[in-house]
Design brief:
5 helices, about 140 residues, globular, mainly alpha
């Protein structure tokens, strides 16, 4: 568990998870290096579903949606539970039903910045980082 100002590094290929275990709102900076566009799409899809109320209190979509999203993004992330073999069977069975019900594995409309697009200066300060140059934020520099 981390507290304000602490950081953690998740090495690619290791099982990890993150969530807010507290009662107060948490501000989190997540940096991916090198950049993984497919992972960004997955996070955008899952957070987008949560933002429009299509997940439970723990941020999990229903089993049909989970099956399609899990299969869509199996190249970049895998769920820790249930075991991978069980996931393959469950996703194989639930995916087609989910598609028939109108669910999709990815929602491009959620895969763009929404909400806060620049880090909160107070969160940056806790992390020991300087605010981004305004030109960087606006995309003027590569």
């Amino acid at each position: 568990m981390l507290t304000a100002g602490e950081k953690a590094v998740a090495v690619p290929g290791t099982w990890h998870d993150f969530w807010n275990a507290g009662e107060e709102e948490a501000h989190v900076l997540v940096e991916f290096w090198p950049l993984y566009p497919r992972f960004e799409q997955m996070i955008g899809t899952l957070y987008g579903l949560a933002n429009v109320g299509k997940t439970n209190a723990k941020g999990m979509p229903n089993p049909f949606q989970l099956a399609l999203t899990g299969r869509e993004f199996q190249d970049v992330a895998q769920f820790a539970n249930p075991p991978r073999a069980v996931q393959r069977v469950m996703f194989g069975l639930l995916g087609p039903i989910g598609r028939m019900r109108g669910y999709r594995g990815i929602y491009p409309e959620y895969c763009h910045p929404h909400g806060r697009t620049t880090p909160d200066p107070a969160v940056l300060a806790l992390a020991g980082l300087a605010p981004p140059d305004q030109d960087d934020v606006n995309g003027a520099r590569p």
